[in-house]
Amino acid sequence: MEYSHSDAELLRQPIGYWSWAAHKAVVTRTRAALAEIGTTQPQWWVLAQLADSPKPRDEVSGLLRNYLDTGQENMDWEINRTIALGWVTEDEKGRLALTPEGRAFHKKAAKLQERLWAERHAGISDEEYLTTLKVLQRFIHNTGGSAWHH
Q1: Which helix (H) or strand (E) is 96 found in, with range?
Q2: Rounded CA gap, 150 and 130, in Å?
Q3: Which pLDDT belongs to residue 12?
Q4: Beta pairing partners, 38
Q5: Which secondary structure element, helix H or strand E, spans residue 90, and what is its range?
Q6: CA–CA separation, 79 vs 88, rounded Å?
Q7: DSSP class of 33
Q8: Which residues share a beta bridge with 98?
Q9: Which DSSP category does 123 fall into?
Q10: Residue 150: band (very low, low, confident or very high) from pLDDT cuts 50, 70, 90
Q11: What's the pTM value of the predicted model, to 2 decimals?
Q12: Quick one: how far is CA 110 from the chain centroid?
């Protein structure tokens, strides 16, 4: 791969631009790939949260509403959509669970996510990835921001 600037020039490049450009590229690619198999990224998040066990709707929605600024209303809509698609059920106590169809679709989407992970990480060592995440977290800390991902 050819880099955009020399090392000396890269040291003067703005982190805000490059972190935004990386975010945009990764999210755009992920959402396009998920759309090809008939789902959205927030719907994938719901399926992934329920893959191991049923959970209360409030817990799932509460955790996911802040992912990429999705928001409570949109997250509730996405949860309702997974129910309408027959991938998730909701009992009278508000517990969400995968249906057999949802479990099968989750497996398909999980395989896609594994391929996307490999695509994104091509040529990047675990050490480089770890350093990148730590540096980004330091930028967040240094600017008074907060971020958390389970």
Answers
A1: strand 95-98
A2: 16
A3: 93
A4: none
A5: strand 88-90
A6: 8
A7: H
A8: 88
A9: T
A10: low
A11: 0.90
A12: 12
